[in-house]
Amino acid sequence: MTITKFILLFIVTSISGIGAATEEYQTHRPLIASTLVGLALGDIKSGVMAGASMELVALGWMTIGASVPPDPALAGTIAAILTIIGKQNIGISISIAIPVAVAGQILQIVQKSTIDVIIMHWADKFAEKGNTAGITAMHFLTGIPSALRVAVPSLMVAYFANVSYVQIMLNKIPKPITSGLQVASGFLVVVGYAMIMQLLNIKELLPFFFIGFLATTFSNITLVGLAVLGGSLAAIYYFYFIKDDNRNTGRSRRVKTADLNSDAVNVENELNEKNESIKLNRKDLMKVFWRMQFYQLSWNYERMQNLCYCYSLIPVLKKLYKTKEDLSKALKRHMEYFNTHQFTVPVVLGVNAAMEEARANNEKIDNEMITGIKVALMGPLAGLGDPIFWGILRPMTAAIGAGIALGGNIAGPIIFFIIINIIRLIMRYYGLIISYNQGVNMITSIKDIMPKIMKTVTVLAYTVMGGLVAKWTVINVPVRLYSYRSNGKLITVTVQQQLDAIMPNMLPLCFTFFIYYLLRKKVPPVLCIIGLMILGIIGYSFGILK
């Protein structure tokens, strides 16, 4: 490996490491991370193919609350490096990348519970002094260990994979293991599908999963066509089963609003009578918007998104509070514990910006009201953001991109990158602007509309997931049942042929629901993956699987 490739590999793996911390641009997803590695090493096609296969395995790997999955960034970079430099087939590369990703999960937990906590406490000292530049610097300082956490292991694997005796050792792995792992790579994807189904968990909508499955099994529908089918079914479900419920929304809204605490209602009244002496404008809100592009970089295990949130709100606080003392109080107020889904956090930021504006104009809003609104919103928004964005939109777009990329088509990762970032930017912008304009009224609006949106999008997700089970899960049982002669030719009938005669793709469907059952019984996804890898090796060794 040349010095140029070494430097490029360091840069792209660092980008993926920072992406794993922020989860903004999705550069940490295997489909993107492997493509970047392929670009750095001069073999884009192999990188795209490795990333597509790894992405389908890792579809269900998502960060929810304090729960950290195996590191998808490391999985993607290692899979591509072993495929390109180590000259291994993709199945072997994925099988090695998965345990490395589990080790990366441990590294991330250590980083976020030690290094990033220390840096966050340094930010506390800057908040005490009213030093916004210091807080900003601490937020971005956490990006260094995040970058190195992925870059260093990736470079080590690249170095050793390039050494001749390591390649000889990899090539001497017994064929039953290498071929068995290759066989297992065909059905490891069911773990990701099952994880997403567990997150969605709306049983009355499961029939749409079977619609997608059957449509793909008995037709030549493409992934784009599958998405259109899912979107059409979602539209039908909304207009015929959900939209009519909106008639009752107006009747119940007052009742729902009454359920909010009295402080929130009082805040709303205060916000409607804003003093024009200090007024936030679109330029101020756009500063918050641009800061959100690296929102979750400084997430830590002690106070989670506190530094992220404070860093994002700094432009608003600097404009509203002119003295160091007032600014320091505001900064410390937003350095308290906070955590929600990063794509829905603009809603909280917008409401808080409106409240801080009212407070700066001497209206009757205290620290407890501002903090109380944050606490009241963060749970429901996380509960909606995780399934909608991580459980539906990201895996759906990633699966479509991966499906296009399996043959080495770079359009796959590009399409995924563009679509997911358009969704992200729309949510960031309008979530912030609308919530600022509505103030505390936003709470009622969210409670009314988000559950309906979730059910509608879940119809789309189930349809696509069902189709993916049929399209990308490969299980072949070549065991011979019997033979007979027809027109002088010997015809052999296998178990797979008999199963296909009953219903094609029966085994992929059964495997998916079996893993879904195990996950609901609290079996860790990593153990499911390891179990399927062992099944692939044993099945191939005894001639049961091919």
Task: Give a short synopsis of this structure.
The chain has a two-stranded antiparallel ribbon. The chain has helices spanning 3-22, 30-41, 44-57, 72-84, 90-113, 115-129, 132-141, 143-161, 164-171, 175-185, 189-200, 207-217, 223-242, 249-259, 262-271, 282-291, 306-320, 324-333, 345-360, 367-405, 411-438, 441-472, 495-502, 506-520, 525-541, and strands at residues 480-486, 489-494. Helices cover 73% and strands 2% of the residues.
Q: What can you see in these coordinates?
A:
This protein is an all-alpha fold. The protein has helices spanning 3-22, 30-41, 44-57, 72-84, 90-113, 115-129, 132-141, 143-161, 164-171, 175-185, 189-200, 207-217, 223-242, 249-259, 262-271, 282-291, 306-320, 324-333, 345-360, 367-405, 411-438, 441-472, 495-502, 506-520, 525-541; strands spanning 480-486, 489-494. It has a two-stranded antiparallel ribbon. A hairpin with a 2-residue loop joins strand 1 and strand 2 (489-494). It is globular, with a radius of gyration of 26 Å. Mean pLDDT is 86; it is low at 247-275.
Q: In terms of topology, how is this protein built?
A:
Blueprint: H1 3-22, H2 30-41, H3 44-57, H4 72-84, H5 90-113, H6 115-129, H7 132-141, H8 143-161, H9 164-171, H10 175-185, H11 189-200, H12 207-217, H13 223-242, H14 249-259, H15 262-271, H16 282-291, H17 306-320, H18 324-333, H19 345-360, H20 367-405, H21 411-438, H22 441-472, E1 480-486, E2 489-494, H23 495-502, H24 506-520, H25 525-541
Antiparallel strand pairs: 1-2
